[in-house]
Write a structure and sequence with these properties.
Layout: H1 3-21, H2 28-52, H3 57-83, H4 89-120, H5 126-134, H6 136-140
Helix pairs in contact: 1-2, 1-4, 2-3, 3-4
Length: 143
């Protein structure tokens, strides 16, 4: 999946979370947990966009780590809503499945970048380090 497709997918996930949270019951627990889900669910796309603007491979990896954490946190809040019987497991499963897929793709990207970083810039001369950094544009399209 290329950079733009992943941006679109994370944006659609954020929109789906927003729309779904709006359907939750209007009670204190649902509102508090829903707010938490809103924060992390919409943060996935925002942090992915930041990762796409990373200045170095290490910076991109760090920012993708945030994407991973936020998507995983969304799964937690979704599971909590189901456990509290605020939302049915069927309702939760669609969003949780998408969040899980986003986590898996992000982890795969991080692993790929770590491998490329080790091959290209750790413990090498400045010229090789600059060369590795120039490869980021190619790498970003594979994230």
């Amino acid at each position: 999946m290329n950079e733009q497709a992943f941006k679109d997918r994370t944006r659609k996930f954020g929109l789906a979370v927003i729309r779904w949270v709006e359907t939750l019951p209007k009670n204190r627990t649902a509102e508090v947990v829903g707010r938490q889900l809103l924060r992390c669910g919409t943060s996935v796309g925002a942090n992915y966009r930041a990762a796409c603007r990373g200045r170095s491979i290490s910076d991109v990896i760090a920012k993708l780590g945030i994407v991973e954490e936020e998507a995983d946190e969304a799964i937690y809040w979704l599971e909590l809503l189901a456990d509290l019987n605020i939302a049915s497991p069927e309702q939760v499963s669609i969003l949780a499945k998408e969040a899980d897929e986003l986590v898996a793709m992000t982890v795969a990207s991080i692993k790929t970048l770590r491998g490329r970083r080790q091959d290209g810039s750790v413990g090498v001369s400045k010229s090789k380090e600059r060369n590795a950094e120039s490869k980021i544009q190619n790498l970003k399209s594979k994230i």
